[in-house]
User: What shape does this take?
Amino acid sequence: MVLVRLSDRLTKFLMILGAVWSFVLCFFILAEIITRALNMPISGTKEIVANSVVMIVFLQIGYAVRSNSMLRADFVVLALPKPVQKALLIFALILSAALFFFLFKAGIKPAVRSLANWEFDGEGSLHVPVWPARWMIVFGAGLAGINYTLLALVEIFDLRVEQMEL
Assistant: This one.
């Protein structure tokens, strides 16, 4: 399926982007710790880190969904017959897709408003724009919803799709 391959490439790219941003953020936090010890803290660190954590989560959520890495407690389901397991899996995938599409829809208006009003977080000398984090929520939720939908279609129609590598 072309859509699955496209989704896989996009989710892998976003996962790598989120990992790189996490790595860069570690050094930024380290610099903040060192400068704070020298009584010269970097202003805006709290706002940058808070917005970055949101962005990193939503950069990587599509990959977590597609690679079946989302947390799942299926110890009760495994005791049920195979047809019931499959039905419950399809139900869970559809419900998860609906949840992320709802988050996508709910996030559009705040994201547009944030960009239109140039919303910033923080006080003092450094103002961190909020719109990138808000748009990443919209984009990440949409991609997660698409990936859950694709997984549901694969299960419903017993399609042969390669398992995404971790």
Observations:
- Residues 2-37 form the longest helix (36 residues).
